[in-house]
Design goal:
By secondary structure, this protein is α/β, with parallel strands linked by helices. It has helices spanning 4-12, 53-64, 103-111, 120-131, 190-194, 196-208, 223-231, 235-259, 275-288, 309-322, and strands spanning 15-21, 25-32, 40-45, 71-78, 82-83, 88-91, 99-101, 115-119, 140-145, 149-155, 158-159, 263-267, 299-302.
Length: 324
């Protein structure tokens, strides 16, 4: 009879491939079971003259594959809406070739191992829950605020998907139906007010209106430029971040009412703007939450996995799906 200890040893010798697909870059890493540090980490530009995005993806996985190791599964974090049942990327922002792309079938035929697919924000939440800021929590809300705004929700240690896997699009709640157009085509979504893209757009609009600001010295100011100007005391920059933070805090109050998490985890470059955006978030939470019980013992913190939560989450998904 094989001992439990030996079976545990065999399990620890399993390996997994994690993929994080971005509009600019595809990252692929190989991991040994229960190890957080990757054995190999490969980065490739998503678009090139030589290869299609799917060919680049396939080759990056081959380059990351651990030699002579028993890879059990591949996990993929992809932007955009995902059809979980079909294993299809319905629409990937900045990868127009991937309209209803059958990612799972494509990779399973190539690599002959199980492939698991999910939205990148969902998997970022999963990564932070397992290894990052959410470790030890059972109910979390994760929000990433960068070029766009995405989110993931874990309830009672389970990732929330909804009936078609389309749940937790937290950046696409309506905060003002008369607001600006969102990247999705609708109007007044949180993403249209508080994403990095929205902050940059509003900075440009105010400069065109003749507002006196240091940002006028930058040809095309970004959200990072706005954050840097705020640190130097620029009034417009501080105003833009405060307004973005107010809208975020108001939406977060709704998320507390709906999900009642023990922790809010904030990821993405915009959240690194420090007190200029975090203080308005906290103030709006206090103002718009309907009862102080929602805020009692609530942890509000920044993500801990840097720019790798989607990659880590893809690995967690693949490993969890093959246990047992």
């Amino acid at each position: 009879m094989v001992s439990n200890l030996f079976m545990l040893y065999l399990g620890s010798m399993s390996y997994y491939i994690a993929v994080d697909v971005g509009g600019t870059q595809i990252r692929v890493a190989s991991y040994q079971a229960e190890k957080l540090e990757p054995l190999r980490l490969i980065r490739r530009r998503t678009h090139s003259r030589e290869n299609t995005p799917e060919e680049t993806l396939k080759q990056a996985i081959k380059d990351a594959w651990p030699e002579s190791k028993p890879v059990k599964a591949i996990g993929i974090a992809s932007p955009g809406p995902i059809d979980l049942a079909a294993g299809t990327i319905i629409k990937a922002p900045n990868i127009p070739q991937w309209s209803h792309f059958p990612a799972v079938d494509f990779l399973e035929r190539e690599f002959k191992v199980p492939v698991y697919l999910d939205n990148d924000a969902n998997l970022a939440a999963l990564g932070e829950w397992r290894y990052g800021a959410g470790k030890g929590h059972h109910d979390i809300v994760y929000i990433t605020v960068s070029t766009g705004i995405g989110g993931g929700v874990i309830i009672n240690d389970r990732l929330l998907h909804g009936v078609r896997g389309l749940a937790a699009e937290l950046g696409h709640v309506t905060v003002d139906p008369n607001g600006p157009q969102c990247s999705c085509g609708q109007y007044g979504h949180l993403e249209a007010f508080s994403s990095g893209t929205a902050i940059a757009r509003r900075a440009h609009e105010r400069i065109q209106q003749g507002v006196n600001t240091e940002l006028s010295k930058v040809a095309h100011p970004t959200a990072r430029d706005v954050a840097e100007a705020a640190e130097k005391g620029d009034r417009l920059a501080m105003e833009l971040l405060e307004d973005a933070g107010k809208h975020l805090g108001r939406a977060f109050a709704d998320f507390l009412h709906i999900f009642n998490p023990s922790i809010l985890i904030l990821g993405g470059g915009v959240t690194l703007s420090g007190r200029y955006i975090l203080e308005p978030i906290r103030n709006a939470l206090s103002r718009y939450t309907m009862s102080p019980e929602y805020l009692e013992d609530l942890v509000i913190t920044l993500a801990q996995l840097g720019d790798e939560p989607g990659l880590v989450g893809a690995r967690v998904m693949a490993e969890s799906a093959t246990i047992g």
